């Protein structure tokens, strides 16, 4: 069994832990904000009154502000560092570039553990842990380096690369199968097009650019959602979700319009990129 196949394991584990991360951290933030604003809201038993605290408009607004700051820290730092990690993946080592974001993840989780142990600490420490993760590339670097690693096997056909990408996308969605079982298809197709039309020695940078765009989109989404939600909470709390559904239409129409052109490029791509090894591919092949 090729050692590259083991990349599915850490990616799957990261996806599963990531799906558990958000509800747990949100609960912690709500409780910390509740404790911080107890004199203002009149809610003093924040542990047993979580449901009451989560319905309080003042607590919701402040908690959303903290999550917004954390998202800005993660995405901004991740966008700045992912490109550099992509270059390391192409020029130095695929494996070394994969380790960098996981080191940052361990440090960020250590920060969260300290925040949970010292529960009375300010909730504004949470963005700090996200900033640490972002400085090591964040989730964007995990995704981009994993795809660069799995598609850099020399001599593999475009069909096999597409299968590898599909398996890796499946590993990413393993933690949220009931909710996103069909959501991975567009990402799988787009990354397959990239792997078939980009030379092997440039795939790390190409996937890094995609991850940066993904991070930028998440940053804009966080700004829109966390600014719109507090404003609309008094008359239409679900406005952000309605807007999110409406914004799916433009990219869907663009993909449908350019479908034939994309399929033509994919079918006519040659295998020169797969046969020409980059220095990083040579280092991985000897593993």
Structure description:
This protein has helices spanning 8-36, 38-41, 50-55, 57-91, 94-117, 126-135, 138-150, 158-172, 177-180, 184-197, 203-232, 239-246, 249-257, 259-268, 272-275, 279-285. The protein has a domain at 4-180 and 237-258: Growth Hormone, Chain: A. By secondary structure, it is an all-alpha fold. The model is unreliable at 269-277 (pLDDT under 50). It has 16 helices and no strands. The longest helix has 35 residues, at 57-91.
Write down the CATH class of one domain.
Mainly Alpha
Using the 3D structure, state the CATH architecture of one domain: Up-down Bundle
CATH homology group of one domain: MFS general substrate transporter like domains
| CATH topology (level 3) name of one domain | Growth Hormone, Chain: A
Gross geometry: globular
Measured by DSSP, the beta-strand proportion falls in: under 5%
Query: What is the CA-atom radius of gyration, in angstroms?
Result: 21 Å
Quick one: how many beta strands?
0
SSE class: mainly alpha
* Separate helix tally: 16
Low-confidence stretches: 269-277
Overall pLDDT: 74
Main location: membrane
InterPro entries: MFS_trans_sf
Keywords: Membrane, Transmembrane, Transmembrane helix
Membrane topology: Multi-pass membrane protein
Which key terms come to mind for this protein?
287 residues; Growth Hormone, Chain: A; 16 helices
Sequence-ordered SSE layout with sheet pairings:
Elements: H1 8-36, H2 38-41, H3 50-55, H4 57-91, H5 94-117, H6 126-135, H7 138-150, H8 158-172, H9 177-180, H10 184-197, H11 203-232, H12 239-246, H13 249-257, H14 259-268, H15 272-275, H16 279-285
Helix pairs in contact: 1-4, 1-8, 4-5, 4-6, 4-7, 4-11, 5-6, 5-7, 7-11, 8-10
Protein name: Major facilitator superfamily (MFS) profile domain-containing protein
GO molecular function: transmembrane transporter activity
Subcellular location: Membrane
């Amino acid at each position: 069994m090729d050692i590259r196949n083991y990349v599915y394991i850490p990616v799957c584990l990261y996806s599963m832990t990531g799906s558990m991360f958000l509800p747990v951290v949100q609960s912690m933030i709500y409780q910390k904000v509740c404790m911080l604003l107890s004199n203002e809201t009149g809610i003093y038993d924040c542990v047993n009154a979580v449901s009451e605290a989560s319905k309080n408009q003042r607590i919701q607004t402040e908690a959303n502000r903290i999550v917004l700051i954390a998202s800005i820290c993660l995405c901004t730092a991740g966008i700045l560092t992912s490109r550099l990690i992509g270059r390391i993946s192409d020029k130095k080592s695929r494996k070394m570039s994969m380790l960098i974001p996981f080191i940052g993840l361990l440090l960020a989780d250590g920060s969260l553990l300290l925040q949970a142990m010292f529960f009375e600490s300010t909730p504004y420490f949470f963005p700090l842990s996200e900033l640490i993760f972002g400085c090591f590339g964040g989730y964007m670097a995990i995704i981009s380096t994993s795809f660069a690693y799995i598609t850099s096997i020399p001599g593999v056909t475009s069909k096999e690369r597409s299968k590898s990408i599909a398996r890796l996308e499946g590993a990413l969605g393993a933690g949220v199968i009931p909710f996103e079982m069909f959501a991975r298809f567009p990402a799988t197709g787009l990354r397959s097009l990239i792997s078939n039309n980009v030379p092997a020695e440039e795939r790390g940078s190409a996937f890094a650019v995609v991850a940066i765009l993904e991070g930028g989109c998440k940053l804009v989404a966080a700004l829109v959602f966390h600014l719109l939600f507090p404003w609309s909470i008094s008359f239409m709390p679900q406005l952000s979700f309605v807007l999110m559904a409406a914004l799916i239409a433009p990219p869907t129409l663009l993909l449908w319009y350019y479908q034939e052109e994309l399929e033509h490029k994919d079918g006519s791509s040659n295998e020169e990129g797969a046969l020409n090894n980059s220095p990083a591919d040579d280092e991985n092949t000897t593993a």
